[in-house]
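REVIEWER CHECKLIST
Item 1: Sequence provided? yes
Item 2: Single chain? yes
Item 3: Sequence as submitted:
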Amino acid sequence: MSLILGVRFAAYGRSSPIIVAEKVFHTEYGRYGDEAKGYEVHIKHYEQMDNTLLFSDVADRIDEIITKGKLKGVKILADYTEIGKAVIDELRERRILITPMTTTDSDKETVNGQGGYNVPVRDMVAITQRLLLKKRLKFAAGIDGVETLSDEVAATYRDDSQYSDAALLLCLVTWWADRFVAEYKRSLKIPKAGRL
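Item 4: Structure as written out by the authors:
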């Protein structure tokens, strides 16, 4: 599936952002099946959860977005860099299938031992900047705050601590789309003539 829901659990007192994105393939961008060049990332939903909410409230909101948006099968990335593993355990207890992620200042991605990845901020930002420059990162009409996010990510690379939680989440979602989401092809069964 090409849908991704990302959440970055921020430390208490800061808002936790949620982003829903879709990787959309376009044959006019790539030649000879060049998948790396043949896609856009469309941001379908972006919100900041209140900074006084409990992690369980954020988990409730994730459930609500998936249910109301009919996002069955969506890939859920949960960035727990700042708050530790407890929130991952809570999400799993609720049977929310997640991929736990952390962002790092290291030079290479590694498996994090929770079934997810530790991802270098530098790599995430570079992929997102490339998509912005090539106009392949699109935002749905009416989403507040996207200009600020785009400007922040488009700036020269800084260390992890100088990016907002929302900008880091945007970069994580685009990194995942670039790295892992394969083209989704749905096979349709066409009935024979006269049989409906």
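Item 5: Key structural point noted by reviewer: The longest strand covers residues 39-49.
Item 6: Recommendation: ____
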